[in-house]
Write a structure and sequence with these properties.
mainly alpha, Arc Repressor Mutant, subunit A, two-stranded antiparallel ribbon, 5 helices, 36% helix, disordered C terminus, binds zinc ion
């Protein structure tokens, strides 16, 4: 089980919805987030949900001068959102990210090219390492069929 999967399992439905709202925009203020939640017609308990997401290091608050803080996903937050998208596709066994991969930012410090194409469902043709399938050098270029 990867780190994003473990974190995702700890989130309530409301917290995941709030995380997805923050993902859908950049530099949201808390007020804008509240308005977005209201427009969904649901009570997402924004203050509590947001507090938990910040405590889990999934959301970061940036403060510009005297402005209200701007909310953005952290590296981990992107990984959790991307993993939730990965498992929402009906794949028998979703390909997993490796350490240092979150599906959003190219992994840093990787020694050599990725040796196994692990498809990321929402970026067709791309691997969790964010390199195109054609750049992978495996013996057959395809995962073996399931037994
Ligand atoms: Zn790869």
């Amino acid at each position: 089980m990867n780190v994003f999967s473990r974190l995702l399992n700890k989130l309530s439905d409301k917290e995941l919805e709030v995380l997805l709202l923050i993902h859908s925009s950049t530099n949201l203020t808390v007020q804008q987030l509240e308005a977005a939640a209201d427009s969904k017609g649901k009570d997402l308990s924004v203050p509590e949900s947001l507090g938990h997401l910040i405590n889990e290091d999934l959301v970061q608050v940036k403060v510009f001068g005297n402005d209200a803080g701007a909310l953005n996903l952290s590296w981990l937050g992107y990984g959790v959102v991307n993993w939730s998208r990965q498992i929402s596709e009906p794949a028998s066994r979703p390909a997993e990210p490796r350490q240092g991969e979150n599906g959003e930012v190219p992994p840093v410090g990787r020694m050599g090219a990725c040796d196994e194409y692990r498809p990321i469902s929402f970026r067709p043709g791309y691997c969790w390492c964010l390199v195109h399938r054609s750049e992978h050098h495996t013996s057959n270029g395809l995962e073996a069929a399931e037994p």
